[in-house]
Structure formats: structure tokens, C-alpha cells
Amino acid sequence: MDTRAVRRDASRARILETAWKLARRDGLGALSLHAIAQMVGMRAPSLYTYFPSKNAIYDAMYADGASQLAAALAHRPTATEPVERLRSRVRLFVDFCTTDPIRYQLVFERPIPGFEPTRESFEITVKALSSTRADLDAAGVHGKRALDLFRALFTGLVSLQIANDPGGQRWSRLQYEALEMFLARYANPARAGRRKPRPAKMAATLT
Amino acid sequence: MDTRAVRRDASRARILETAWKLARRDGLGALSLHAIAQMVGMRAPSLYTYFPSKNAIYDAMYADGASQLAAALAHRPTATEPVERLRSRVRLFVDFCTTDPIRYQLVFERPIPGFEPTRESFEITVKALSSTRADLDAAGVHGKRALDLFRALFTGLVSLQIANDPGGQRWSRLQYEALEMFLARYANPARAGRRKPRPAKMAATLT
DNA sequence: GTCTATACATCGATAGAC
DNA sequence: GTCTATCGATGTATAGAC
Question: What is the pLDDT of residue A32?
């Protein structure tokens, strides 16, 4: 491969890593090109060699964070029981969010006015979250309302954990209890692992 | 009362109202004294007559938002059935948060690096939320874990509603369904309205 | 109480030398 | 590819005249 391209990618990676470090220290909104450049050992204008704008840096960070979640979800062991698989998803999601609140904020909230991830970067998130439905379906949980409620439940745990007990476990430790509550209401044991039956269309014409 | 004090309070209120308007338009972090002053019909330095710093304005906004929630919770009709009372709390909370996301953000998250509400302002929030325990207790829900899970559930609904469907109802409409799920697991009908029995301490010495 | 003027810092971004 | 220099704007806050 072109050695120039390799060096360029290495520099981009260093800049990105530094951006993460500063964002975690000072907050996403306080991120400045000046501070990044100084820590990398450059001057601010030199960053424009690697990223065309500040928002491009945010977008690269977004894609980075989303990819990490997608990769972690994809690399889970596959041959487990449906409910256990759901547990592993919940555990992974809660861990992912609480171990790096800034990353969570960038990927799942809209913390920077004027910044939206590019369509390309956003697709990574969409794919990572779309597998939620599959895991729920396998555990006998069907329907859009159940999916939305599932997401709300664990987003809430994470949100309160980060806002009110950063570094602690007050809410994150409730994740399995929360999952039990959810499954008790929404899991249909009889249909677990089976497909949702296709609704009979045009029933009137058939009778 | 001193007419000077009245005029002063009126000006403070006008500044505050304008600050809310701008924060809703541009985001909390983008709030600038310049823009506030311009909209009020002043110059930026004149604001320092009414607020000693920008953070003092944030704090006044925080106290304002927290007071609105406290007042709304306090003014609910009191003579209702426990579960209905819980429903009214949930409905009010979800409405409060979704009708003004910026206010929600300021009161329940830490959106501005470097700003923390003063102890005095924070007390307002604490009192508003402390009544949650009473409402839950009356409905037969006891214990710290249940309380934390209750908060997580509805914070999650609000958070996803604001982030992914602003102005819509995709998650907020699930509030009663969520409450049902929660009560099905945590409400103890036999003990509804009664005190949680004091655990027998020193059981070993009693037997 | 409100103003002008200003201090002082920081920001993102561009132009052009080397 | 990195630099210096600089633009142009924005930010909070203070001093002092009126």
C-alpha cells in the first residue's frame, strides 16, 4: 500500500485519539482545534490537512464510537439461549455506555448544535440497533411497542447512571431485574424462537 | 414595596424569559449575553446590573424550571386513587419534559461544562422528586430498587422521545403501558396504602 | 441604570511561504 | 505537509462617562 496513505491514516488516528481524550476531559462542546493540535504536536491549521472541518472530526468520532458498538455486538458468542443472548446484549450495551459517557453522548444524543452525523456514519448505528429486533424476536418478544419500550428501559438506566452516579453502579446493577420485568410482561413463551404468524390478509374474501 | 425593587424584578424576569427563548432556539450552550441583551433592548454590559455572571443566569433558569415542575406536581388534585395518582404523576412528568426539551436538559442533565446549580436551586429539584417515593408507597410499591427503576423507565421514555422523535409521540404514548408493566412486577396489592412492615431485627436473639 | 469603550481571550478557517 | 500570519467573528467581563 502507498506509504503516504499509511502515514496519513496514522496521523488521522492520532488526531482522533487525541480528540477523544480532550472530549472526555472537557466535554464534547468544549473541544477545540487549538487544543487538539497542541496535544498532537502540531499547529491548528495543520489539522486541515487531515480533516476538512471541525464537524468532520466530530463525524469521524461518531463513526468510531458507533463502529465500536457494532463490533462488540457482532462479536458476541452466538450459540446461546435466546434469553441469555438478550442478557448479553443488555450487559454489553450498559457497559458500552457507562464506561465512556462521552462516547454514549455523541452516538445516542444530539449534544453539539449544528452537528449531525453524515448518512454514512449514521448507517453504522442503524445496523447495530437493528439487530435488537432479532434478539427480541428470538426471545419471544414481538411488536414495535415492545421494542421501543425495551430501548427506553435500558436507555433510562444508562442515562440516570451517567447523570446521577457517574462511575458507580446504582442503576446499572438493575439491568437484569429490569430485563426480568420486561420479559414477564412482553415475552410470549409459547412463541419463543418461532416466527410471528403472518396475519391473514383479505380475510373477508376468504370466508 | 420598594418600586425600584419591583422594576428590578421585572427586568430580571424579562431577561430570564428572553434567555429561555434563545436557549430553545439555539441550544443551551450557544446562549450568549450579547444575544440576550440585544433581544431585551439593552447592551451586553447592562445585564451585569441584574445578574453577576452568565452562570448566574443559568442558575436562575435552572431554579425557574425546577420550580415549574415542583409547582405542577404540588397542584395536582389530591383526592384520587393511588394508582390514578401515579398515572397523573407520570403524565405530568412526561408532559413537562417533552413540551420543553431544553428545560428538561437543564434541570435533569449536566449540559453546560462548568455550570452546576447552586445548592439552593438544587434543593427545589430534590423536593420535587422526593414526593415520588410517597406516590409509589401509596400504590404499594416499596424499596429503593423499585424507585430507581421507576425513574429509569420514564426517564428513558422521555430521553428517546426527545432525541429520536422530537415533537412526536412515539415513546411518550407508551407511558401507561410502561406503568402497567412496572406495577405488574412491583406493586404489592395486599400492602397497597399500608406501611412496609419493619423487618424483625436481631431475629437470632429472638428465637 | 444604562451607556460607550475596551480589555482580553478563544474560536474556526484561509492564504501563502517554505 | 507543516508552518507563520492573519482574518473576522464571538465570547465574558470591567472601567468609567453620563
Answer: 98
Query: Hey, are the CB atoms on A186 and B185 less than 8 Å from each other?
Result: no
How many CB atoms within 10 Å of residue A65?
Answer: 24
Average pLDDT over residues A68-72: 97
The greatest distance separating any two alpha carbons of chain A, rounded to the nearest whole angstrom, comes to 77
Q: Which residues of A touch B184 (CB under 8 A)?
A: 184-185
What residues of chain A lie within 8 A of the CB of B151, using their CB?
A: 156, 160
pLDDT at A207: 29
Residue of A nearest to B107 (CA): A163
Q: Does B27 touch chain A (CB under 8 A)?
A: yes
Per-residue pLDDT tens digits for A175-204? 999 999 999 999 997 554 444 444 444 333
Which helix (H) or strand (E) element contains residue B65? helix B54-74
Structural domains of chain A, count:
2
Same domain, yes or no, for B41 and B84? no
B45 touches strand D (CB under 7 A): yes
Predicted pLDDT at B1: 64
Q: Are A132 and B130 in contact (CB under 8 A)?
A: no
Q: Using CA atoms, how far apart are residues A187 and A192, in angstroms rounded to an integer?
A: 8
A49 CB closer than 7 A to any strand D atom: yes
pTM of the model: 0.90
Please state, in angstroms and rounded to a whole number, the distance separating the CA atoms of residues A27 and A161.
17
CATH number, domain containing residue B102: 1.10.357.10
Question: B104: domain range?
Answer: 53-194
Mark yes or no for CB contact A109/B163 under 8 Å: yes
Within-domain flag for B206: no
Summarize the confidence of residues B3-19 as an average pLDDT: 94
Q: Identify whether B205 is part of a domain.
A: no
Among candidate residues A130, A134, A135, A171, the one with its CA nearest the CA of residue A154:
A171
Around B27, how many Cα atoms within 13 Å sit in the side-chain half-sphere? Answer: 11
Contact residues on chain B for A180, CB-CB shorter than 8 A: 185
Q: What is the pLDDT of residues B165-195, one digit of tens each?
A: 999 999 999 999 999 999 999 999 755 444 4
Asked if A54 contacts A66 with a C-beta cutoff of 8 angstroms, the reply is: no
Nearest nucleotide to A52, CA against C1' atoms: C13
